[in-house]
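Handout, section B. The chain below has 378 residues.
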Amino acid sequence: MKKLLVILPAVLGLLLLFGHTFAAPGSQSDPLISLSYITDTYLPSLSATIEGRITAAGNTVYGSSSQKLTALVQEYSQKLDALAVQSAFAPEFIQTRVKSGDALTGTTGTGFVLLAGSVNVTFSSGAVINVSTGTEILSGSSLAASQRYLVAEYTTAVFTVSSDTAVVEYEGNYSFASSTGTDYNAMADALKLLGLFRGGDTGYGSGYMLENKPSRVEGLIMFIRLLGEENEALSYAGTSPFKDVPSWASSYVNYAYSKGYTNGVSSSLFGTYSTITAPEYMTLILRSMGYSDASGDFTWDTSLSYAYNKGLLTSGEQALLASKTFYRAQVVYVSYYSLDAALKDGSGTLLQKLIAKSVFGEEAAAQARAKVTSSRIA
């Protein structure tokens, strides 16, 4: 009897928990449940019911979780497969020239340094650290030049070029996406191959300094090269009245002065390091093709529209040069495409003239042209 009294509360609890009902044996006058019924009939039935409900609930949860887990595995497998194709690892810093819209994606441990130009970094979570200052930066920030950045743990960051050109260094895991933007870097490579562009003594970015504003002396040197007269200029031993010309540029300036190509900004100053504007540089380009502002073909301040009317510039190029800050990148652009423009006297193109003067050969010209695959600005 004591055993029955112990079991009954437990049985009643189970009944309340699982809502199980049964038909008790006996009659209205004798409603007691026998111990044999509980142990031999009811408890086995209750146990089977409980086990069935637990199994059903478990199967439902397992099935839902299994589907979600399978979907996640497939999603991340696809991402890993993509990374396996596109990503790479740089064990030490790699330096490269990039163009507007180019994007480098880095993950935990990727290092990045901007040497020239402008780059923005974005990330949806985690952190990017400016190691040079020991501070975190916000997503969307523009990077400071010559400072080292590190992608922190559990972070994927995208470094996107926002200037026409830039010079960057990176190390660690990365993937690189190239834009379809104007490739000023390729044009600089092409002109260098032809001996028309050599850059300066800057220790990075091939010395091209495409992110800098051009100076008057740089414009003059490009003009002399496009005339095909660099050898004559380098061997010229005469002088000029200008007092602000460094020794490395003196032969160019003195030669140009002797030929009447320049009068300087005053009787004693050439204005070596003053910046040259787009209309001023286009004036030199037009002169190299036989047009003359001195004889009234055009004036320096109308050189862009005149070049457009003569087919040297597209409407998009004219608008860009008229509204945008003029950098060495644009010097390279204008110089490269001027090679295909017709000379004033109709004798051919500027490229053909330079080949005829043995400045470079046809094979070099073909190799240079192959370097530039981007389209002109329409």
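Note. The radius of gyration is 39 Å. Compare this with the example in section A.
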